[in-house]
Amino acid sequence: MLDVRKLRLLRELAHRGTIAAVATANAYTPSAVSQQLTGLEREAGAALLTRTGRRVELTPAGRVLVAHAEEVLAALERATAAVAATRTGLTGPLRIGAFPTAMRTLLPPALVAVASAHPGLELSVEELDPAAVPPKLRDGTLDVALVHDYDLVPIEADPSLETSPLRDETIFVAARSALTLPECRDHQWILATPGTLCHAMTIRVCGAAGFTPRARHHADDFATVLAFVAAGQGVALVPELAADPLPAGVVLTPLPTRRRTRLAYRAGTATHPAVAAFAAALVSG
């Protein structure tokens, strides 16, 4: 019989790439993770990893087992959701992740609605970039999260997660006057932090227009970005949701690029009463 806890570690290795990263994420030592995975190999009766020095890669059998592990873990989530649905009233923690714009606009009314309808739920929120969401959902640090992606920066497929759409938005050039994107080639830019989806989006959108933006400032909060634009510190790309209120002196020019906001959760948890209640509050809000 295969141990579910060991299967989780194998799946995390497939996502994180190194035993050290898996150990850090699960508060284990690397040797403990290695021992667990060695035990899983004995249970499976096949070599799951190939080790070359410090590098570890999945064997064909390892990749097959990871795919089945995703199905097993999703089935366990569905079973947990089904049991939760038999209880009277919703209680316990609901850990929510959200990107900064959603924290300010979409999340407050949803939190009020859920807290009012289900006072037994213990709501907690963490602000983070969508790029940081998948590992936190997989390891149970979060139960649900608001994420977004862009036309030119789509969400990478992750079999351990599911998403449902919430809204689409237009992306705008924000400047002191009406400017098309090619006209911004020689301007200084206000960019998000490298490594975030918003930074990648701006780089790719500008690259598709034939230039690389020259960064003058880096800021992740769009209210700050727009304030900098109003102060004549540069131009920026901002989504529709972030443009209200719009500072005086800032002009928005729409682009064909779109941002899509989604609700993300672990595969198999869509029918969990707490997740469903939160999803319904977001849609109705």
From TrEMBL:
SUPFAM superfamilies: Periplasmic binding protein-like II, Winged helix' DNA-binding domain. InterPro entries: LysR_HTH_N (IPR000847), LysR_subst-bd (IPR005119), WH-like_DNA-bd_sf (IPR036388), WH_DNA-bd_sf (IPR036390). The keyword Cell cycle does not apply. Residues 2-59 form the HTH lysR-type domain. Pfam families: HTH_1, LysR_substrate. GO terms for cellular component: protein-DNA complex. Keywords: DNA-binding, Transcription, Transcription regulation. One of its GO terms (molecular function) is DNA binding. CDD domains: PBP2_LTTR_like_6 (cd08423). Belongs to the LysR transcriptional regulatory family. This is LysR family transcriptional regulator. It comes from Dactylosporangium sucinum. The lineage of its organism: Bacteria, Bacillati, Actinomycetota, Actinomycetes, Micromonosporales.
